[in-house]
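Kindly go through one protein, given below as sequence and tokens. The question is how this chain folds according to its tokens.

***
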Amino acid sequence: MKTIHIGLLGFGVVGAGVAKLLKEKKDLLEARIGASLNLKTIADLDITTDRGVELTGTQLITDAVTVINDPDIDIIVELIGGKTIARDFILKTLENKKHVVTANKALLANFGNELVAVAGKNQVDLAFEASCGGCMPVIKSLRESLVANDIHGMCGILNGTCNYILSKMSQDGSLFEDALKKAQELGFAEAEPSLDVDGYDTAHKLAILSALAYGMEINLDDIHVEGIRNIGPADIGFAKDFGYTIKLLAIGKKHENHVEARVHPTMIHNSNPLSHVDHSMNAIAIDADATGRTMLYGHGAGMMPTASAVLSDIADIARNIIAGTRRRVPTLGYPEENIQKIPILPMAQLSTRYYLRFEAQDHPGVLSTISGILGENDISIKSVHQKGRNANGQVPIVMLTHLAKESRIQAALAKIVQTDCVVGQPVLIRIEDDETE
């Protein structure tokens, strides 16, 4: 039986999970792949901490370059993270004509086009199933399973930290700060949570998925990104009253000459299955012409779910090695020469529905002034909702709009805040439902 040698860079939580699966599932992997997967060497700066993994037959060293340069190693698994040294190691590995498996979405979102080109030049595989959605096979679905489909759109919950926080706020009435603290205590959120709660982690994943879905270059820079820090109990409560749930969504849609790619808090109707994806779980719905809507659901992070996705890539590459082939499936699902530069729609040109909440002064004419400014900007109001005076003496006014253009919404809000009708900044949450699809 052929032996395929693997080198692992990074022995953190996910790295330990990968080593654990390679060791404990050795017989199952051999039966399914038809070859022995040997974890030959692990490189990590910390080689003394016990990870609870039996490493008999595996060398543990501190020098990653030694692993990369080992002529016996066929596949390098990069689980260091970050965008500096990990990039250097992956580029060196590809130049050494070795296959790479990574879970590094930030690196791929920022430098993926470069890495794809280098992998193509050296005719080796670059695989990254674990970079988006944890154990959900969304990369394989877009790259292989849906190959005969035009992908019309994607809508996904791709960050477990934000989903846990919003679930706690919705179900328990927690404030954002309290829900975040609980997420940190449970290990769902980092001590410095900005990458998650400000939407950037989700944007990294959307940049990768958009390239796979639409045959475009990876383009992180033009994705609109908003986080969840400004979502408050009032907005959660109003959403419930309207039959909606607020989720941080990654939204991608294909149009004739451009795509939409945006990340922001979104109101979705409770009839949408995504509204019931709670706590730290992830899910993505993919709309395609032949299949209709397909939905994937699963753990978006964690040691074993992520390690499982890494192993799926290792298995694919191992099968290619056994068959004497490589790059059977193009890195981004399209041969490099067919990948296009497709522009992302500027946010100002977006048309969708909106939830608007104002803290209005309690005096006559306020509602007519706000409505008048919206009307001047061709914004049609679907409904108006008003609740009693709050502790500060203001009256919360909520409006749901029909389809409106983002630029007009922003222009109207800028004019409204200049009046003496409202206090503070209005809250804007975009709505995704049948009227906007």
Remarks:
- The two ends are 52 Å apart (CA to CA).
- Residues 3-137+303-338 form a domain with the Rossmann fold fold (CATH 3.40.50.720).
- The CA atoms of residues 64 and 386 lie 61 Å apart.
